[in-house]
Amino acid sequence: MTNMQIFQVAAFTDQSFGGNPAAVVPLDAWIDDALMQKIAAENNLSETAFFVPTGDSEWHIRWFTPAVEVPLCGHATLASAAVVHSRLAHKNWPITFQSASGPLKIDIDADVYVLDLPANHSQPVDLPDGFEAALGAKVLESYLGKNDLYMVVLADEAEVAGLDPDFGALAAVTTHGVIATAPGDHVDFVSRFFAPAIGIDEDPVTGAAHCVLTPYWSGKLNKDNLDARQISSRVGIVKCENHGERVILRGGAVFFLSGVISI
Fold it and tell me: How far apart are CA 153 and CA 218, in angstroms?
């Protein structure tokens, strides 16, 4: 029998049952890819992160939805940093996660984790046929970033909050995810993120989406420090900084459970 530690951590929040829950599985060495995918499917959270040590303050990290492996996940990276800090008792910060998206540096500022992620500069595009009908909204602007991430701009926060997409139809016209965004009523911008094509109808708080949103809203609002809310039912608070080719995201983490996987 193989035993592995597992933790569930809510990222981008300071409250229980807020933010975005991620499962985190620290490993001494990599296990089979198919087994990691089965564990992620069994967890049935938007992301499960696995990491192995590669140096004194360095780990290699990978992320799986219940359906596929993905090239970047911000909230599960934050959750993994919280495990390194609070459960593995690592003392030397910052740390680095090596990933499919390059090195990701994480630091701690009081009780907030500071993520240094690659910016995802999107470009204007025409939307596929059926996209607006699947989303259920009139799109004012549409963009496409790396990793097939669509970003669509709506009129206001109320439109974003009121979205009720046809997830089957949305999965048919996308290959990854859709970020819906608008100016916020009380913050710089709000968003929601839908990715039915990779097994996530709606992700509660999405770090990778803010790698697209931050450069866009920084240019739109002519400011580099931005306050954002992802207005899913769980709600997430993200402090964003635009640094050109990098994006700094700040957020808290709250532990929910610890356990052991036995296979």
Answer: 14
pLDDT tens digit sequence for 164-185: 999 999 999 999 999 999 999 9
**Six token digits for residue 53:** 């040590």
Rounded Cα distance between 114 and 152, Å, is 27
Select which of 47, 157, 159, 202 is catalytic. 47
pTM here? 0.94
The domain defined by 123-240 folds into Diaminopimelate Epimerase; Chain A, domain 1 (3.10.310)
For residue range 46-102, list pLDDT tens digits in order.
999 999 999 999 999 999 999 999 999 999 999 999 999 999 999 999 999 999 999
157 is catalytic: no
CATH superfamily for 3-118+250-262 is: Diaminopimelate Epimerase; Chain A, domain 1 (3.10.310.10)
